[in-house]
Amino acid sequence: MAKVLKKSNDISFTTNVLVTKEDGLFVAHCLELDIVAVGETFDDAQREIVSLICAQIDYAFTNDNLDNLFHPAPPEAWQKFYKCNEQVERKYKIRHSMKNRTNPEKIIPPWLITKTCEPPNTFFYA
């Protein structure tokens, strides 16, 4: 069993995040889960969306509810994401706040990888 747990450290959950600026706020949209976070700065929005994504993953895996995890964003959001010239990849540790009651040995991905399409010039983006 130790080998399986050791291998689980290589498992990751990857999402695409589109960040735009609307009405003076940064809006981060996770395209696979169709969830949105807002912040006054790019970093605030990024931090909030990562927190929401991690909570969704933790809850879905802990409660064997993967069927309800994915809700793709509308096609327009995906089109904006794929028009992005550069996506920045970041890796985050998923902190598990829940225990799996039905299967305590179930592996939950320890890493979240986000591919983020950021505004072209975050500081001057209008």
Descriptive report:
A 5-stranded mixed beta sheet has the order 3-2-1-5-4, with helices on both faces. It is globular. With 126 residues, it is of the alpha+beta class. The protein has helices spanning 2-8, 42-62, 75-83, and strands at 12-22, 25-30, 35-39, 87-93, 111-117. The model is unreliable at 1-7 and 122-126 (pLDDT under 50). It has one domain (2-117). The N and C termini lie far apart (53 Å). It is built from 3 helices and 5 strands, in the order αβββααββ.
Question: How is this structure best summarized?
Answer:
The chain is an alpha+beta fold and 126 residues long. The protein has helices at residues 2-8, 42-62, 75-83; strands spanning 12-22, 25-30, 35-39, 87-93, 111-117.
Order of neighbouring strands in the sheet with most strands: 3-2-1-5-4
Number of domains: 1
State the major sheet.
5 strands, mixed
Strand proportion, as a percent range, falls in 25-35%
Number of helices: 3
Order of helices and strands: HEEEHHEE
* Percent in helix: 25-40%
- Got a strand count? 5
